[in-house]
């Protein structure tokens, strides 16, 4: 009886804590809902004074009323017809934004290109620097050389994961978004030139370790900067640009490899590969010259209580004052709610990450998609494609040319994700992408069974890697960063994203480090089969464990991530007959059994309307 009483008390305590966590996240979803209309008007007027714009007090009031109930602005009596027209245009003309907004888009896109070029220029250089520094890739059964080449390639990503990523928060706190982007691009610029001037493998290793400090904080800051500056109507499309233009940067790295391949030494040993590595400084330099012409994030200004600067920044990023006042005031109230939540939390954020089941589920889900972004095998090809094509029988120059073709595919096929990620959903894109990537890698590995020296062998290896890239770019390419940003409650989102990005970069480093010895131990066929098998693992893990996040509010996401892995896996296993009937047998009338509260509510509404028959449920 004593044990039963203890268990009952602990269960009740857990339920109370879970309700508190849910109340916190609901409070952060839209903190304006807790105020009455009169309170909201008064607070908005006071905020206009705080922003040193009392002349726009009425505009701030209008913005606050719209922010509290976004879908009801047509019936808001305080709004003039001109105000309503600006609000309508957010839907009807959502891409008609101020020039400053598009200038910011260009800056963020260039920063993403810096990221991609930093990653890919080593591809062509791998054909030259190991031999020059006395570590040829093939020695009589000696594995040391493969490990040395692997660690040099992997060092920026281990530096990102283990050290650099954790400087993101203090850098942003003290330097702002623009300052962090400027500094990290400066580090990337200097270390690219430094890499080009190295005279030994360990010197190159050190230079690339510091390159990690130019990659890590930038990869976490640029998407946040973009999200904080853009209106909600185009936020998803802009956040997706990070993946698109990173792919563009990867492609430009191959262009640089190809452009400098035939450059003679001119008295400088290895001038060609040195120019390849050094060329990545160019986009970084362009971003440094551009970023301070963009407005700083209004949210960062508010975190420093510089409200007048925040409003001026928001005005540059919106088409009308009512839109600027609405977005700034909502951000202000959310920031105040965050401060309030921080004050009432029983534990610090790091402990909250692992002590609460809902947050642990977010860690697992984001960690899974970030892990599989690497172990789907994409960056093996991104970093070693020239060596892979050379192993298939291509000349060095042709291998770099084939790598460029792969880079073009990687960039072009990232564009469809802008339209599909919110149409098909994150989970469905992954469930389509993983089997296709697995088949492509099996085909690539099998292509090495074709006799060496034949055109068919080279063509089939290239085709397999291209098909793998085409399946990756609109699925496992864009999903992880978007999904990770949705996996955590707002009050721990920063530390949650740091965790997710660190997982991504750590396993990126593992891939770079282990590919040369894996190739020697498993042969080309076995190495590609190995990553093909990981894609099958990814499909199974996503099917049974990963919840969908498309189109859900913060409250609904809390309910989704509160479902245990065991319950989610059992539900998906039970749904297998439903998926077979609907997607393979074409039975469109069959209904899906609900799992989450928002699905059950939808079903109850349909039953009340007489549009749902329980007998059709897919058990």
Automatic annotation (TrEMBL):
One of its GO terms (biological process) is myo-inositol transport. It is a multi-pass membrane protein. It holds the Pfam family Sugar_tr. GO terms for molecular function: transmembrane transporter activity. The chain crosses the membrane at residues 179-197, 203-225, 245-263, 275-295, 363-385, 397-417, 429-450, 495-515, 527-546. Keywords: Membrane, Transmembrane, Transmembrane helix, Transport. It catalyses: myo-inositol(out) + H(+)(out) = myo-inositol(in) + H(+)(in). Residues 104-550 form the Major facilitator superfamily (MFS) profile domain. One of its GO terms (cellular component) is membrane. InterPro entries: MFS_dom (IPR020846), MFS_sugar_transport-like (IPR005828), MFS_trans_sf (IPR036259), Myo-inositol_Transporter (IPR050814), Sugar/inositol_transpt (IPR003663). It is found in: Membrane. It comes from the Eukaryota. Belongs to the major facilitator superfamily. Sugar transporter (TC 2.A.1.1) family. This is Major facilitator superfamily (MFS) profile domain-containing protein.
